Amino acid sequence: MRTSSVELVILEILGHEHAHLTSLEIYELIRSRLPAVNQSTVYRALERLANQGKISVSDMGQGSAVYETVTDGMHHHLVCHECGRVITLDHKDVSDFFNRLQKNNHFEIITNHLILFGICEQCQNKE
Ligand SMILES: [Zn+2]
Ligand SMILES: [Zn+2]
Predict the structure, then answer these.
(1) Co-location of 98 and 64 in the same domain
(2) Residues 30 and 12 placed together within one structural domain of the fold
(3) Which has the closest alpha carbon to 75: 115, 17, 119, 18?
(4) Residue 124: left if φ>0, alpha if ψ -120 to 50, beta else—which one?
(5) What range defines the domain where residue 119 resides?
(6) From the CA of 43, how far away is ligand 1's center (Å)?
(7) How far does residue 55's CA lie from ligand 1's centre (Å)?
(8) CA 112 to chain centroid
(9) Ligand 1 centroid to 54 CA: how many Å?
């Protein structure tokens, strides 16, 4: 019972924040609403939601995985290696590329959250 309520709160937080949050950030947000919850319950709930495909998990180069709801449809990101700035891409921006890879390699891609690292415009201009 308590576990499923944790899952609901996670989905609500991720939906509301509309952001990529680390498990620790999620835990801290949940604790302000459910003070009795412990960290491993939150982490297990995150794992379950990810396994069910309700949230995505990605490594965005910040040292720990980030979680995000996938209800907004598929999207991808360009992440600046210098300042951590995140640019969000619509799936349609890369769908041709995906389709070509799938066709040429007879491969079905299941990655639904592509992270490409690079240097953003601002950081390029700094050099
Ligand atoms: Zn994302
Ligand atoms: Zn940058």
Answers:
(1) no
(2) yes
(3) 115
(4) alpha
(5) 75-126
(6) 19
(7) 10
(8) 10
(9) 13
| pLDDT tens digits for range 100-113 | 999 999 998 877 78
pLDDT, residue 118, reads: 94
Q: 112 CA distance to ligand 2 centroid (A)? A: 24
| End-to-end Cα, the chain, rounded Å | 54
Residue 40, domain CATH: 1.10.10.10
Question: Are residues 41 and 25 part of one domain?
Answer: yes
Rounded average pLDDT over 1-30: 80
Ligand 1 center to 36 CA (angstroms): 29
**Closest ligand by atom to 19 CA:** 1
Q: Which ligand is nearest to the CA of 91?
A: 1
| 24 and 62 inside one domain | yes
DSSP bridge partners of 104: none
Please tell me the least confidently modeled range out of 3-7, 39-43, 45-49: 3-7
**pLDDT value of residue 62:** 67
pLDDT of 2 reads 46
